[in-house]
Write a structure and sequence with these properties.
The complex is a heterotrimer. By secondary structure, chain A is an alpha+beta fold. In chain A, 31% of the residues lie in helices and 37% in strands. Helix content of chain B is 26%, strand content 35%. Chain B is elongated and about 70 Å long. Chain B is α/β, with parallel strands linked by helices. The model of chain B has no long low-confidence stretch (mean pLDDT 91). Chain C is mainly alpha-helical. The N terminus of chain C is likely disordered. The chains are: A alpha+beta, B alpha/beta, C mainly alpha. Chains in contact: A-B, A-C, B-C. The interface between A and C is large, with 49 and 50 residues.
């Protein structure tokens, strides 16, 4: 029975990892307004393979936007927008963060780029459940043996 | 054994008083030998340029040391003598040298949009 | 404490013979590797220059930090030597290496109590002549405060101000200054390292998580200690001071309150002290009369988890309004943050955990075992997991911000120095694209430790193996849920 559980879970992982093929290359345009110390919108959701265009506007002082994992950076001054275009080819949730010291909370100025499907998260979550189920199974088996 | 205690005390003194003396001594030496003017940059609401008026003699090179102790970037512009430091990042310092060849009063200003009151971030250079 | 305590030594109740316990069913939990078998290490541990040399070095470092945080004023911390060294380098080193591997290794080299030590002992390194009556009032710490509660409160209160401490140099200056001053003043009134033991805000979690550490200081041979009637490790001799952390090195079993000051290596005439490497987490199972499991430590574990959640939401999350609350843009906002933070850490997390413990008792079918025993016992499963949460959190601090260290090393006071030629090194995030993976791996790894120790703790809580197994299931669910929650926070 435990093996069956395991198989189901592994199948789930595989399904997520290989993924229902994403609808190829939609284009997303985001107008991101930056101010001390947040981005609006602060979560950008796209699908794998989408074309992402970001226009960065600053509402107070110079801000930047650096995207983790894509290693892209753009800077905006008040009245001087920045723009960024890229293809979201890596899935997962990536932090984008301010890259110009803009005030005392600058290191905490953060936004999220979500490239669906969030394979890393599903993988680790599935692994966790597999581990948990495995441990439960071992416990159950051991009990039977000891009883 | 007595000696060991003395060495330890010496190291303790070195770590505390010695460190302080080294830090401030070195900085003092630097300022005395390397710069003529030290200028602090802050947005107007946090103190503005300090000092706001700089007085220098005519015809001699001025080594201007600008320290940005603010939380945002600033720039330094002195149009009369074609001096421009594009960006001084928060927490950094930069040195620029120029020679004022005319006497008079000249405006210097911040060149990075640093706050709502950015336009007030100006100072005066007096060349005698 | 006087000389009377060691004489109270009672033979520990002999444990019933049991099969060897193994970490993950592989590594014998009693396995030890004594580093003093190497002559150089032994000599080092016995030298009076250890740990003084390290303390002096850190005194030097903290002088620079104090000057930098004082001169840095109330501005941005990411270019300040003090902020970067304390909150980026020190904190991350604590969570990555010092605590999980070397237990209270930081306490070994911490410079803050040096002034009170010096005052009490009247010597910096030597032991001094007889009579060795220490200076200061030398009072005993009140018995009812000999636990973690005060540190729990002080640490929680310190975190209220993390929106200032981690970004404003002057706030860090005030914090460090108060800790140094408090350490000295407490040293004037109370004996030895009372401050470190029961007050220092960062002492509590180091003590708690040290139980997980892969290192320990212990006696080598019980028989030698028993035969040695004059407990020099406790009362001191001409080679060293009696345990400054008020432990009894000849019998203690748990890292929690061992500050690793190495005095017992010097005072033991039989070279009977060992610096052991051991399997991770060995202390989590210790529950003796002298060093019993307690609610104070349980709450410390809850607080550490709660702080991680709140810090994540506030500092590493994308929500601006929370940042405004934490950095105190408005007083009501700041107060509601404090209220939420406090209730969440002190009540919500323990409450949820209590519910799972109640389920555990129900599932076990054992009605005799007190719920408090179940609750306290299983709370220790949160220690590896909590450490994992903080390791994961620390990746999120060091990877994006580590490059600032190059700048501040060269220009510690923002005066335009360039000591090592790295003053103009630009901000460079390192491997931040792999942040979710590193965090995921850390969570899963420490989850396994938690679960493994959970099964072992269950066997200690419930008398029957079958009860233990049934009773463990709800705890397994709780640990899995907590891990899932953090996976979701970090990468979902």
């Amino acid at each position: 029975m435990n093996r069956a559980v395991l198989q189901v879970l592994l199948a789930g992982v595989a399904a997520v990892a290989l993924g229902a093929a994403p609808p190829a290359g939609e284009e997303h345009f985001f107008e991101v307004r930056a101010r001390k110390f947040e981005y609006e919108p602060h979560v950008l959701r796209v699908n794998r393979g989408d074309r992402v265009r970001i226009r960065l506007l600053s509402e107070d002082v110079a801000h930047g936007l650096y995207v983790d994992g894509y290693d892209l950076n753009v800077v905006a001054n008040p009245g001087e927008d920045g723009s960024l275009t890229f293809t979201a080819d890596r899935t997962g949730r990536f932090i984008f963060r301010c890259s110009v010291t803009c005030g005392e909370f600058h290191p905490y100025m953060i936004g999220h780029l979500k490239v669906e499907p969030n394979t890393p998260f599903f993988t680790y979550a599935a692994l966790l459940l597999v581990l948990g189920a495995g441990i439960l199974a071992i416990t159950a088996v051991r009990r039977r043996r000891e009883a | 054994m007595k000696q060991r205690e003395t060495i330890a005390l010496g190291l303790m003194a070195l770590a505390t008083v010695g460190t302080l003396a080294a830090i401030f001594g070195y900085e003092r030496y630097r300022r005395a030998t390397q710069f003529d003017v030290v200028l602090i940059a802050r947005a107007p609401e946090y103190g503005n340029w300090d000092p706001r008026t700089i007085t220098v003699p005519r015809g001699q090179p001025v080594r201007l040391h600008i320290r940005n102790i603010d939380t945002v970037s600033h720039g330094f512009g002195l149009p009369a003598f074609d001096v421009a430091v594009r960006e001084i990042e928060a927490g950094t310092a930069t040195t620029t040298t120029f020679t004022p060849d005319r006497a008079g009063e000249f405006l210097f200003l911040c060149t990075v949009w640093c706050s709502e009151r950015h336009l007030e971030m100006t100072g005066k250079l007096v060349v005698q | 404490m006087s000389e009377s305590s060691p004489t109270q030594e009672q033979a520990a109740a002999p444990e019933p013979a049991k099969e060897k316990e193994r970490l993950f069913g592989l590594l014998d939990l009693d396995a030890r590797f004594d580093l003093t078998r190497f002559r150089l290490i032994r000599a080092l541990l016995k030298s009076r220059w250890m740990p003084l040399a390290l303390i002096l070095f850190n005194t030097f470092m903290f002088m620079i930090i104090l000057v930098a945080t004082l001169l840095g004023g109330f501005s941005a911390g990411n270019y300040n030597f003090g902020i970067m060294l304390v909150w980026i380098l020190w904190w991350v080193l604590l969570m990555f290496v010092l605590v999980p591997v070397f237990a209270r290794a930081w306490c070994l080299m911490c410079p803050f109590p040096i002034f009170s030590d010096w005052f009490q002992r009247r010597r910096l390194i030597n032991i001094g002549e007889e009579p060795k009556k220490p200076w200061g009032l030398n009072r005993r710490w009140p018995k009812w405060l000999k636990n973690m509660w005060l540190m729990n409160v002080l640490f929680l209160v310190t975190t209220f101000f993390s929106g200032f401490l981690t970004v404003r140099p002057f706030a860090t200056f005030v914090l460090l200054g108060s800790v140094i001053l408090a350490a000295f003043i407490v040293g004037l009134v109370y004996e030895k390292r009372s401050f470190c033991l029961y007050l220092c805000p960062v002492s509590g979690f180091q003590g708690l998580y040290s139980q997980f550490a892969a290192a320990e200081i212990r006696r080598k041979d019980d028989a030698i200690c028993k035969a040695h009637k004059k407990k020099t490790c406790f009362i001191g001799n001409e080679q060293g001071h009696g345990c400054p952390w008020l432990l009894m090195p000849f019998k203690f079993e748990k890292n929690t309150y061992c500050g690793m000051c190495l005095e017992c290596f010097k005072t033991c005439p039989h070279d009977n002290m060992a610096f052991n490497l051991r399997p991770f987490g060995a202390d989590l199972l210790v529950d003796t009369k002298l060093e019993s499991k307690g609610l104070d430590e349980a709450w410390k574990a809850f607080i550490m988890l709660g702080i991680a959640v709140v810090f994540y939401l506030g500092f590493q999350g994308p929500w601006g309004f929370m940042k405004d609350m934490i950095r105190g843009t408005t007083l009501p906002g700041f107060l509601s943050y404090i209220a939420f933070h406090t209730v969440f850490c002190l009540a919500v997390i323990p409450g949820v955990f209590l519910a799972f413990c109640w389920l555990s008792k129900l599932a076990s079918g054992n009605r005799e075992v007190p719920l408090k025993k179940v609750f306290t016992g299983f709370a220790y499963t949160l220690i590896p997991l909590g450490l994992g949460v903080w390791v994961a959190f620390s990746f999120g601090i060091i990877l994006p911000n580590g490059s600032y260290l190059l700048h501040i090393a060269s220009d510690p006071f923002s005066w335009g120095w360039n000591l090592f030629g790295t003053a103009n090194f630009p901000w460079t995030p390192v491997l931040t694209g792999y942040l979710p993976h590193l965090q995921g791996i850390a969570m899963l790894l420490f989850y396994l430790f938690s679960v493994d120790y959970g099964t072992k703790l269950a066997r200690r809580i419930y008398p029957e193996p079958a009860q233990a197994k049934r009773g463990f299931v709800p705890i397994l669910a709780a640990l899995t849920a907590v891990t899932f929650l953090f996976l979701w926070l970090y990468m979902g």
